Amino acid sequence: MNYETLLKQHQLKITPQRIGILNMMHSAGHITIENLFEEIKKQFSSISLATLYKNINSMLDSSLITEVKAPNYKTHYEITKTPHAHFVCTSCGEHKDVEFDMSNLCKNLVDESTYEVAKTSVIVSGLCPDCK
Amino acid sequence: MNYETLLKQHQLKITPQRIGILNMMHSAGHITIENLFEEIKKQFSSISLATLYKNINSMLDSSLITEVKAPNYKTHYEITKTPHAHFVCTSCGEHKDVEFDMSNLCKNLVDESTYEVAKTSVIVSGLCPDCK
DNA sequence: AAGTCAAATAAGAATAATTATCTTTTAAGA
DNA sequence: TCTTAAAAGATAATTATTCTTATTTGACTT
């Protein structure tokens, strides 16, 4: 699916800046605000940091993107995909997606008759294969 | 165990401010920097915010405390306990500990022959029993 | 118990990160 | 096309965090 229709589905206006942000985010996999700004400036030299923040926030509000907040690392952003876990390498800092069935996890976590589970975030840190 | 020996174990100097911070953190369970500062000022009216930040950082470095970074919420801090998961209520904002066996989870998550897992963070959000 | 020293504190300056304000521009529907 | 609400850009304001310097204090030694 392309980003135009994705934005439309989330009732967000289609702008070149937003397309650019989503492209960067997609090719990086996960990216911080500051890296995103660096990259996006290459394409839109006059883009304002405020525009970036505002777009990040509106895309977060609509759940088009997701924030990944790993302990000891800056927040990374990714395009929302099917639920999965993250692995963060303490050596190279890389954030990697890890396939994982969240719904199964929740059954073991809290009593779903008393809690109403909405989202689950699983972040594992350690050494990735390259750094081990 | 009291906080003096806990600090000593982590090779941190015992100061009244640090004892106070740990007391607040313990009674709150999980607390943000700003709430911690509000509370601690009642006890140490002249405490500096820089002191709070520096202590939080040194206690994080030594793993005496742990940061809990839930999506959409400010970072909360807690005294490091045995590994457990967290539940964050999207209605009242409460952070609650949830018993959970992390080591078991990891076995299903990544191939431990290629990855070296150090820590795991599991944060579930939704409605707590009181808000459901 | 007094002396020493590295580390911690306080105060405030400096820097970084995020949000708000205001004007201009633009996407999208009539 | 025209219209309008929303988005972009510029920059100010706010908030969060770190740094600097002088002073104080905890912990260790004698």
Account of the 3D structure:
With 132 residues, the first copy, chain A, is an alpha+beta fold. Chain A has 2 domains: 3-79, Winged helix-like DNA-binding domain superfamily/Winged helix DNA-binding domain (Arc Repressor Mutant, subunit A); 85-126, 2-Layer Sandwich (Dna Ligase, domain 1). Chain A is 39% helix and 22% strand. Chain A has 5 helices and 5 strands, in the order ααααββββαβ. Chains A and B meet through helix 5 and strand 5 of A and helix 5 and strand 5 of B. Strand 5 (116-127) of chain A pairs antiparallel with strand 5 (116-127) of chain B, so a sheet runs across the interface. The first copy, chain A, binds a DNA duplex (30 and 30 nucleotides) through helix 4.
Topology:
The structure is a homodimer of 132-residue chains.
Chain A: H1 3-9, H2 16-28, H3 33-43, H4 49-61, E1 65-68, E2 76-79, E3 85-89, E4 95-98, H5 102-109, E5 116-127
Parallel strand pairs in A: 3-5
Antiparallel strand pairs in A: 1-2, 3-4
Chain A binds a DNA duplex (30 and 30 nucleotides) through helix 4.
Please, how many domains of chain A?
2
The share of residues in helices of chain A is 25-40%
- Strand elements of chain A, count: 5
Mean pLDDT of chain A: 95
CATH architecture of the largest domain in chain A: Orthogonal Bundle
Under CATH at level 1, the class of the largest domain in chain A stands as Mainly Alpha
Share in β-strands of chain A: 15-25%
Strand order of the largest sheet of chain A: 4-3-5
